[in-house]
Amino acid sequence: MECLVDLGWSGTSTTEVARRAGVSRGAQQHHYPTKMVLVAAALEHLLEAQRLAYETAFANLPPERRNVSGALDLLWDVFRGRPARALTELAVAARTDDELRPLCRDLNERILQVILDVFERLFPETRLHADAVPTMLRSVFAMFVGLSIQNALDDDADGHQAAVLRQLKDVARMIVPQPETP
Fold it and tell me: What is the Cα–Cα distance from 83 to 52, expressed in whole angstroms?
């Protein structure tokens, strides 16, 4: 993932990954014979690590912040992080790479499923019909992807991303009631 952030998809090679990981080229090729297999394995690891880090961070929030606003703040932190930048790099590269595209499409859906699962676990009560929740979360995901691209360009120098996040949290508080027992 570090190679993707630092070098982009086209600059990432199995040789560079092995060098950065401090393993021999032979060991790398034994476990991950192609760049695609290596990236797929890294994405599996990344997705689970991000989910665990998010849930841990939410659980460690002060009780008064364990609400939808706190959850969105944490999600925004995830989307501004280096792992998310690596995923954005892959998504952009997949637009023109027929081999990478299926992996990224699958990953996109799996990320959305993780977001949905975590949301339903943290906020079992909403004012939305159950069928509307996946679409709402897909919208939030798309918004955060776009905001993260803007953030990578300007680090929110003018406060536009923060303003969007504030408005999103205002709407979310109307949809997701404050949990009684954090």
Answer: 14
Contact by Cβ (8 Å): 133, 126: yes
Residue 104 structure tokens? 């990224």
Determine the Cα–Cα distance for residues 34 and 158; give it in Å rounded to an integer.
42
Over residues 2-60, the pLDDT tens digits come to 999 999 999 999 999 999 999 999 999 999 999 999 999 988 888 898 999 999 999 99
Domain 35-175 is of which CATH architecture? Orthogonal Bundle (1.10)
Q: Which H or E run contains 167? A: helix 160-175
Q: At residue 97, what are phi and psi to the nearest 5 degrees?
A: -115, 105
| Alpha-carbon 72 to chain mean position | 12
The C-alpha atoms of residue 46 and residue 28 are separated, in whole angstroms, by 18
Q: What is the DSSP letter of 140?
A: H
Mean pLDDT of the chain: 92
Domain range summary for the chain, segments of one domain joined by +: 35-175
Q: Which two tokens stand for residue 23?
A: 């393993």
Q: Model-level pTM?
A: 0.87
